[in-house]
């Protein structure tokens, strides 16, 4: 899976909840299959499901921050070179 879509654009909270529920059910089925076979194809499928679930969680934080919390923002700063004392 190249990249996951931003489910906060063009989807309602209810639709994202439906996608999340479907992916959670698929994850349970896939984990059961992986524990039996352990194949790398199944492992890749699990990774894809995790990416979609993460995208749904991010979208829900954007669409309903009062319920799911504010979106996580990360800030960084850096200094290049020597700082005089």
Topology:
Blueprint: H1 13-37, H2 40-63, H3 65-68
Helix pairs in contact: 1-2
Structure description:
With 85 residues, this protein is an all-alpha fold. It has a domain at 13-68. The protein has helices spanning 13-37, 40-63, 65-68. The protein is flat, with a radius of gyration of 18 Å.
The main sheet comes to: none
Quote the distance from N terminus to C terminus: 49 Å
Cα-based radius of gyration, to the nearest Å: 18 Å
Count the DSSP helices: 3
List how many beta strands DSSP finds: 0
The structural class is mainly alpha
Helicity, in percent? 55-70%
* Overall pLDDT score: 84
Oligomer: single chain
SSE string, helices as H and strands as E:
HHH
Residue stretches low in confidence (pLDDT < 50, at least 5 long) are none
In short:
The chain is mainly alpha-helical. It contains three helices and no strands.
């Amino acid at each position: 899976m190249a990249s996951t879509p931003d489910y906060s654009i063009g989807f309602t909270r209810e639709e994202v909840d439906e996608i999340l529920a479907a992916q959670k059910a698929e994850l349970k089925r896939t984990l059961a299959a992986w524990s039996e076979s352990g194949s790398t194809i199944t492992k890749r499928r699990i990774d894809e499901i995790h990416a979609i679930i993460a995208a749904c969680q991010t979208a829900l934080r954007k669409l309903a921050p009062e319920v799911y919390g504010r979106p996580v923002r990360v800030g960084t700063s850096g200094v290049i070179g020597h700082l005089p004392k």
